Amino acid sequence: MNAAIFPIPNHAEISKVINFLNLNHAQAASEGKPLIVTITNKQEERSSAQNRLYWKWMTQFADHVGSTKEEQHLFFKRKFLISIFKRDDAEYSEMCGAITALKQNECAEYKAIAEHVIKLTSTKKCTVKQMNEYLNQIEAFCLMHGAKLLIPNELMWCYQNGL
């Protein structure tokens, strides 16, 4: 049996889920592999348009402060994105707590581990809402530091609640 995902935007779609369960549960149970049903709310991943805007802004601010977009990317992840993930993801928060404990215990590997986690922290894991929050924080920070970030017309639609 193949895995199935059923978006349920309205009541009529529930029957598809019930039909699937009716067709597959007996066979799965007899094979000793009972079905597992997980119900979650859909979380939209950050859009490619949000990502394009993000990298345009990294370039703009890097030019403003005389650094590279990659340096700004690491800086803003450390400054804002990690706290968004800590708030919204219990496992991520637990990992950050463990890293903080390493620092408090003066573990020699603390800095290397922390830097590696920052590098691996990615906007790919952001929802549209989280990415918009992140962009808002970046825009406010840059404005406070004398850089008015530009939003190209073709990307204006992907950025909501801007300053």
From TrEMBL:
It comes from the Bacteria. SUPFAM superfamilies: NinB. This is Recombination protein NinB. It comes from Acinetobacter baumannii.
